[in-house]
Every structure is written in structure tokens, then in C-alpha cells.
Amino acid sequence: MAVPLLDIKRQHQPIIEDLRSVFNRALETSRFIKGPEMEQLEKEFAEYCGTERAVGCASGTDALILALMAVGVKPGDFVLTTPFTFFASAGAIVRASGIPLFLDILPDTFNIDPELLSEWLTDNCVVTNRGVVVKSNGTRIGAVMPVHLFGQLADMDRIMSICKDWRIPVVEDACQAVGAKWSEKRAGSLGAAGCFSFFPSKNLGALGDGGMVTTDRPEMADRIVSLREHGGRGYIHEEVGFNSRLDAIQAGFLRIKLAHLESWHKGRRKNARFYSKAFRKLGQVTAPVIKNEAWSIYNQYTIKVADRDELLNYLREHDIGCAVYYPLPLHLQKCFECLGYGEGDFPVSEAVSKEVISIPVFGELTEEELVEVVETIKAFYAEKV
């Protein structure tokens, strides 16, 4: 039996007429950019996340860039994040004129290690009238950007405590974590700003690109509104911004889908429980570790496995959808050679990149498909005995 890694058609089928009505309404009103649909989505999304404001933009990448600029990252500032993440996390830092400064991850959750963050700041930084700077070269620390990888929040209690002591703003990269929680608080509501992607494969996906920034700070939200529209209002510009507006039609699609998001989360979490139980006695597979404070939405169900590349090929030969997120940590990417990192600098990220594989977890999977995935993985390891 073939099992896809993701089948968006199954999610859309029950709501297809509602989605078509959004398209028809856009044609009738000719309101294609911003407008009431986007404004209503921003209100509904802020309410869902538990924040005062939400500002729509063109993509999750743009959300990160806009948020970093809005919290005050200046050209040449360091932004601390991890190398085990999608490229946009570090790419956005560069596009916001900052410099990525990587810290390693925890080996179980794959999220930033908060103790390494604390140690690095203590060992290398000092507070000045310019803010927190690196003692050796005077480079300012513009922000800390934890990535909530695969749908589980980083340890935000510890991260926020550390950053509060140092007075460093926190920008949550929540592009894979819409609706996820830490101590009952949703992603995007804990830092100075939270950034979301509505790429179609996300738990809350548009029918194209889209993004959102959440914040409790009105002045920050107002600046992001300005930045997404060339840095001004109308034809008066205070700074150079971007053309990063959210299309009204995508906002309409997202409003329809937001109403179903919690039920879709339940499907993914149910499937994750099935897998975790099935893999409990399979020594070659380590199921995702979810912290007690965390409520994961399983944007991906990512396992650590023995003989990863062989298993990857085996699953593909048997038509089981799978993928590796991420095969090469960012500090080893050619475009970041200028940062001066090398192999061995982040051993946990490097080890994990050779061990992880993601398998189908979308909510519409059938029990037969779940069994097929598990039995195929078990068959692979049985053949190696």
C-alpha cells in the first residue's frame, strides 16, 4: 500500500465548497489585496494565539524579517538561533541585516539548548549603554530567535527568563508551530513577537504563500504594518520597507481553515500516539520526545533511527512517504561559510542531521495506512538481523 507523506486534497475535500465561495466572493468584490478578509483574519488569529495584535504578510520568511526589524535588530547585530532548522530561520536574519550566531540543540527535542544560551551570554557578553554586546568585538546582540521545530515549542520558560535578565528581545520562529503550546500558552504569545508561515504544507496552510506576526506590543504591530507596505502609509515613507501584503483571497481561505485547525491537530496527535506506542519496543527507532510543558501539533513526526539512509531508500522503494528535515545543518551550508563555522562546531545538530527521518502524520491518514508505515519500518530492521 502506498502512503503519501502529505495529502492536502483529503483535508480540503470536506470544505471544498467553502473554499470556492472565498474565491467567488473575491471575484465579485474585486478586493484582492488586504481589505476586510485580511483584517478579520488578523483579529481571529490574534484571538486564537492569545495576543493583542496579528499582522498578515506575504510569507513566513517575511514574517521573520519584519519581526526582527521591528524588535530593533540593526545592521551587523548578532541574532542567536540554531543551525538545525529550515534555511529561512537564518536567511531571514541576514535579510534583516543581522548576523546569525548559532547555538546547538537538545538531542531529544531538537530545539535550542537554553543552558548553552545562558552559558554563551555569561561567558561572552556584557551590558553597555548600547545594549548587550560581545566583549571581544563589541558586536551587539539584537535578538534571540528560538525555533519551535516540528510543532513543539522550545523551553520558553527558561529562554524568557534568561533573555529578561539580559534584556534581549525574543522573536519566536513559530512557522512550524501554529497552535502549539508551552505551559498552556500558545506559540507566538510568549516572546516580543511570534512568526508564522501559511505555506500549504503547514498545519494551517494557505492555497499559496502567506505569513503572520503576532505581538502584544501595539507600537511593534504598527511598525510591522508600515514595514510590510514599503515603510509608510499612502505615499509618505519614514523608512524603506517591503511589499509584503497578504492577499485577501488567501486570508479568506485561512479563515475557513482556522475554524477547523483544532480538529486537524487532534488527528495528528492521535496518529502520533499510534506511532509512539508502536515504536516503543523497536530499539532502532526513537520516537519524538515531548516535554511535559509542551503540547505539540506535530507539524512533522520526526524519529531518530539507526541506518537512516538505508531506511530512507527502503521506505521510498515501498512507496512510503518520508523526508529528511534537515540533512545539512545551516552552519555547514556553503552560503554561510563566511560565518567561520566548521564541522564539529555543533555536534548535536550534526549527529541529529544523520539520524532523523519524518514519516506521514497528517490527520486524514487511515489506520490501515498507519499500520502499513509501522510494519514497513519493522520489516526493514527485521531484514537486517
Structure notes:
The protein is α+β, with helices and mostly antiparallel strands. It folds into two domains: 8-258, 3-Layer(aba) Sandwich (Aspartate Aminotransferase, domain 2); 261-384, Aspartate Aminotransferase, domain 1. It is 39% helix and 15% strand. The chain is built from 13 helices and 17 strands. It has helices at 8-12, 16-29, 35-49, 60-70, 87-95, 114-124, 156-166, 218-227, 248-258, 261-278, 308-317, 347-353, 367-384; strands at residues 53-57, 78-81, 99-102, 125-128, 131-134, 141-144, 171-173, 181-182, 185-186, 193-197, 211-215, 232-233, 236-237, 285-286, 294-295, 301-305, 356-359. The strands form six sheets. It has a four-stranded mixed beta sheet with strand order 1-11-10-7, with helices on both faces. A three-stranded parallel beta sheet has the order 3-2-6, covered by helices on one side. A three-stranded antiparallel beta sheet has the order 9-8-15, with no helix packed on it. It is globular. It starts with 7 loop residues before the first helix and ends with a helix. The model has no long low-confidence stretch (mean pLDDT 96).
